[in-house]
């Protein structure tokens, strides 16, 4: 109940703040009575600009993951907000430009239009970079896959994340300068204070995130939302295989925007039952860090705990194909002959009996007692022919 109230309060602030600022602007903007229609269009364009500016400020405050906001929105809401609000703000910026110029001569005030144009270009560039490197919605385009592979090869991955956050605050600062030299701000101290208020709290929040928060979270960036059993720490230095990471990204480029939020581990049923002995987040971090040997030669649960239930795929806020990655790791382990013995025993049972656990008299008796229908026997020849075609027989040493 408390979280719902916090979320409702946050949403009210989100929508009421630009409305209040817009009302102040409407009262403070000098009225041009010579052309009412043009004046209304101009004012509407300005209000769209106000909404865009304030929502970009809020987007930064959400992205820095302040504890009250993160608890109210939860991860899914936070990521949805962080994706949708910039798009809405960018559309408002596009509409703002032609509407604000209608019936006004800015030829003598080129700095006003130029500062606004620079702000828009920064946010547009930010959107393009985010689509390429932080969203899996654009992966249908080959150029996006190639750019991710190139970025991984050049080890830009973490730097792109920093560029995105730095571009956001740069765009807000540039927009703030644009608002301060606008005609309304020149004529109204109140509007200058309104714009300064939102720019100030955003800058303070950004500085807190960049300089202060990292000292408060000394070693564990997942402290606010990780599962209680997610105790994995990556403290290894040796054993990295960069070329293998590139092959992994090439095979599954959806891995690139992983933010290591821990949602996969938190919602994984196997991880819950084993209290973190099987940890999907651990596997992703080790894979992206290049610890091939550690992953493929690990304990029985290491990569083999995945039951392909697809829960992590459904809950991942970045829409990463995690199950595909874990299946790829299993296949790699088998190909290199590094998988656990029980995996070969299960494969052998399937080859010889069509089932990992062959039917036994005790099982049949229990089924009869429960009045369950008879289980039809799969076609052994068909299963064996299929497995022979993919080389399982030879891999298990059963070929004659």
Description:
The mean pLDDT is 82. The protein is an all-alpha fold and 400 residues long. It folds into three domains: 2-216, Four Helix Bundle (Hemerythrin (Met), subunit A) (Up-down Bundle), CATH 1.20.120; 242-335, Orthogonal Bundle (Fumarate Reductase Iron-sulfur Protein, Chain B, domain 2); 341-395, no CATH class. Helix content is 68%, strand content 0%.
What key phrases describe this protein's structure?
mainly alpha, Fumarate Reductase Iron-sulfur Protein, Chain B, domain 2, 400 residues, 19 helices, Four Helix Bundle (Hemerythrin (Met), subunit A)
What is the structure about, briefly put?
This protein has 400 residues and is an all-alpha fold. The protein has 19 helices and no strands. The protein folds into three domains: 2-216, Four Helix Bundle (Hemerythrin (Met), subunit A); 242-335, Fumarate Reductase Iron-sulfur Protein, Chain B, domain 2 (Orthogonal Bundle); 341-395, no CATH class.
- E-strand count: 0
CATH third-tier fold name of the largest domain: Four Helix Bundle (Hemerythrin (Met), subunit A)
Shape designation: elongated
Helix content: 55-70%
Gap from first CA to last CA: 67 Å
Q: Give the ordered list of helices and strands.
A: HHHHHHHHHHHHHHHHHHH
**What is the alpha-carbon Rg in Å?**
28 Å
Specify the CATH class of the largest domain.
Mainly Alpha
At CATH's second level, what is the architecture of the largest domain? Up-down Bundle
Mean pLDDT figure: 82
Summing up helix and strand content along with how strands pair, one would put the structural category as mainly alpha
Number of helices: 19
Q: Outline the biggest β-sheet.
A: none
**DSSP strand (E) fraction?**
under 5%
Q: What number of structural domains do the residues give?
A: 3
Low-confidence regions = none
């Amino acid at each position: 109940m408390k979280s719902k109230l916090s979320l409702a309060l946050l949403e009210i602030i989100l929508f009421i703040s630009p409305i209040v600022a817009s009302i102040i602007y409407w009262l403070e903007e000098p009225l041009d009575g010579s052309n009412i229609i043009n004046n209304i269009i101009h004012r509407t364009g300005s209000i769209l600009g106000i909404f865009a500016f304030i929502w970009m400020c809020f987007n930064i405050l959400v992205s820095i993951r302040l504890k009250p906001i993160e608890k109210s929105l939860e991860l899914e809401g936070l990521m949805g907000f962080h994706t949708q609000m910039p798009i809405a703000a960018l559309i408002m910026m596009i509409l703002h430009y032609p509407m604000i110029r209608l019936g006004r001569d800015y030829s003598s005030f080129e700095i006003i239009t130029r500062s606004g144009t620079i702000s828009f270009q920064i946010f547009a560039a930010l959107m393009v970079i985010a689509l390429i490197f932080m969203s899996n919605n654009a992966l249908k385009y080959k150029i996006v896959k190639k750019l991710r592979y190139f970025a991984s090869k050049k080890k830009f991955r973490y730097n792109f994340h920093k560029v995105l956050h730095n571009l956001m605050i740069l765009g807000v600062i540039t927009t703030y300068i644009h608002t301060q030299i606008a005609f309304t701000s020149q004529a109204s101290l109140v509007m200058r204070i309104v714009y300064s208020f939102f720019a100030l709290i955003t800058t303070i929040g950004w500085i807190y995130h960049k300089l202060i928060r990292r000292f408060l979270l000394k070693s564990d960036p997942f402290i606010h939302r990780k599962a209680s059993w997610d105790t994995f720490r990556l403290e290894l230095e040796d054993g990295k295989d960069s070329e293998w990471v590139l092959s992994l990204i090439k095979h599954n480029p959806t891995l690139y925007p992983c933010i290591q939020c821990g949602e996969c581990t938190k919602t994984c049923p196997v991880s819950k039952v084993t209290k973190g002995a099987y940890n999907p987040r651990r596997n992703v971090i080790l894979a992206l860090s290049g610890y091939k040997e550690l992953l493929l030669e690990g304990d029985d649960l290491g990569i083999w705990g995945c039951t392909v239930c697809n829960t992590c795929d459904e809950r991942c806020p970045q829409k990463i194909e995690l199950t595909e990655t874990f299946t790829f790791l299993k296949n790699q382990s088998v190909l290199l002959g590094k998988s656990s013995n029980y995996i070969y025993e299960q494969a052998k049972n399937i080859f010889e009996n069509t089932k990992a656990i062959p039917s036994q008299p005790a099982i049949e008796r229990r089924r009869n007692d429960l009045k369950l229908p008879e289980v039809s026997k799969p076609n052994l020849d068909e299963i064996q022919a299929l497995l022979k075609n993919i080389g399982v027989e030879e891999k298990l040493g059963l070929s004659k």
